[in-house]
């Protein structure tokens, strides 16, 4: 009888301890973000739509006023950000092409706007051509240097990007601070990146610029999450939502916390389903596929992957989802050849460590571990601090029996489980 009582007490203690651990692991609160999931109206979207109607009428009445085209394009770009509907991005491109042709590509502001549109479309080399054209004209040099930094970072031209950054050096300038924050993140100095983004945030608050406040809050949500401060990450996403209740990016960040940190797949899916009704993009299906994999639900995983590819087949996203496609194809031996084809195109379009990682990972999944290692050591090692790239690198080292090199990478990866997602936890432990 005493033994049974003892066991009962031990079992009760274990349950209490487990309950406490689960509670301490919970950061999100439905009471805090539910209101953002239930909003039916979208004031920001409605405002932009009204602006489009207003400026379209003005242009129709005075088609010689070319400047109206850029204003219209800007509003269509905002509509794309708000809804995720790529047709608005293409509409903005069309308007900017008309405007640039009317000006005979002599107005630097309009040239830069078209370049930024191409960045959004992942047409980086075309964006660089336009940025260089703006630089030759010379007007508004600082703004062009900012654009050149952005494009060169996307293309992996890091030496040139650093020079662009030096050309705009101004520690009290918002645009400089967010770019030097990105530069430090690229260098692996997350602490400095966060500190600089905090300074940019303070400038946005001082200037009462709602758009820039939301932008910095959501970026600080990301950066703090990568740094392992999940509570601060969550708090920043909430701050962004206070100002912009329909900010789908921040809601997606909260969904990731629910999934990756709290392992609450039911809540993560509920949040994603609510967002995708208003901001439907293919990557939501990929997130749901990840969650299904964690739940060991192969049918749901395949259904979401099929829905993802169906959306890509229905809507033309150009090169925007190449990276995701390559990673999906590479993980299946039957489609690894497709991954290699995409990776080769990505390396041509965008020779970054990310693109070369795709190439190396594709060769690894095709069984050529030596070729994978050769590419990784030449183009990836020491050139990126992204956890996903380091996971691929450690896996390639293991396949080549270079076990000594795995231990330090594995330690870093174990600290990056939140960023990588729970599906890789066991695979990292097995390295």
Automatic annotation (TrEMBL):
Residues 1-22 form the signal peptide. The keyword Signal applies. It comes from the Bacteria. InterPro entries: TPR-like_helical_dom_sf (IPR011990), TPR_rpt (IPR019734). Keywords: Signal, TPR repeat. Pfam families: TPR_8. This is Tetratricopeptide repeat protein. It comes from Flavobacterium nackdongense. The lineage of its organism: Bacteria, Pseudomonadati, Bacteroidota, Flavobacteriia, Flavobacteriales.
